[in-house]
Amino acid sequence: MTSRAKDFEELLARVRAFTQDTLIPAERQVEADHAIPEPIVQEMRDIGLFGLTIPTKYGGSGLTMEQQVLTTMEFTQASAVYRARFSTTLGLGSQAILHNATEEQRERYLPRLASGEMTASFALTEPAAGSDAGNVQTRADRDGDAYILNGEKRYITNAPEADLFVVMARTDPETEGHRGVSAFLVEAGTPGLRIGEPDLKLGQHGSNTSEMYFEECRVEADMLVGHTEGIGFKCAMDGINVARMHVAATCVGQAMRLIDEALTYAVDRKQFDQPIADFQAIQMMLADSRAEMLAARAMTLETARRIDAGERPLGDMSCCKYFGSEMVSRVADRAVQILGGAGYLANHDVERLFRDARLFRIYEGTSQIHQFIIAREMIRGAQNSADA
Ligand SMILES: Cc1cc2nc3c(=O)[nH]c(=O)nc-3n(C[C@H](O)[C@H](O)[C@H](O)COP(=O)(O)OP(=O)(O)OC[C@H]3O[C@@H](n4cnc5c(N)ncnc54)[C@H](O)[C@@H]3O)c2cc1C
Fold first, then answer.
1. Distance between CA atoms of 370 and 373, rounded to whole angstroms?
2. Which residue range forms the structural domain that includes residue 73?
């Protein structure tokens, strides 16, 4: 085993122990308090979870995509809320900077993001720009050596906790769609930036989202990502592509946990003088859940390896996110069914995991948007073959 492979095995073992010994036991407290205890966030920093996607040159772990998804499948066997605390730094926050910022911007922010000293948040979604992400209305108007931002964002994960926002704003009002959109680095506390109250949500309590308001918010021109206008959508896609693979891996981790909960209950619970696990109807639900989880796991790992080999398989990345998120919803629904009344009551973890799972089909592209991307890539491939 090479020393890098050995380092990775040690990281995985540490993450596994942290998940089982610390994260899972604290889940109910996180749900009740709507907050992750600070000592747990600190341990996440110490383990290096904020820097999993950042190269070692900037203080991160420098993991391959395959290693990133394998690590994610471990810590997401605990509540997905923990992952949400650093997911915006791993994906949309850091990757926009890594791939598009100037070297000075990278050196200023990436080491602090990798260490977890700073939390990044990604602000794209607006009232009129959801799935239609190119329809950004927030304006950034040039004023001397600065831009003046005005507009509103919503559903922004970690907005209350973030130190740095990567904000999508329209610099060219004459150009419709994503081509007139640029990316800005905006630090928390910048005058003219106001963060709303945390939203009330169906699940994932403890992972905060909120609205953001830009009111004559003055941002130095130096904070335009890459000092280049019009590359906002590319910045967004660099982050979203990583985030989609991580969500796919998260769905696998959550499904593993749900299957474990359902199996443990089915073996223990007796009705008609026998464990309910002896009933074929229960066995079929367990079997379907395991088979679908393994399919999502294999698809995600295979696609991660292709990304590591230099490919950019957009359609198949969408397959991972689409299939994984639909899969974990089915697995969560079956887990509730296997537990019967206990699965519906809030004193069992399955009730919370069921609610948490619903989000995966909505953010980082809804299932319908991923179906569209998958088909679009298939059709493009067919047309290119016909033209060749
Ligand atoms: C908890 C949470 C956290 C989030 N975190 C962030 C964040 O950190 N940063 C950020 O920028 N955003 C964030 N989002 C926003 C998220 O990415 C959007 O909610 C998502 O992209 C969908 O947009 P929308 O909610 O406006 O739904 P809409 O786009 O209005 O979609 C409504 C329905 O219409 C369907 N639909 C839309 N267009 C089409 C089409 N062309 N074809 C077929 N069906 C279509 C959708 O699939 C969906 O079923 C978050 C959202 C949530 C709920």
1. 5
2. 3-115
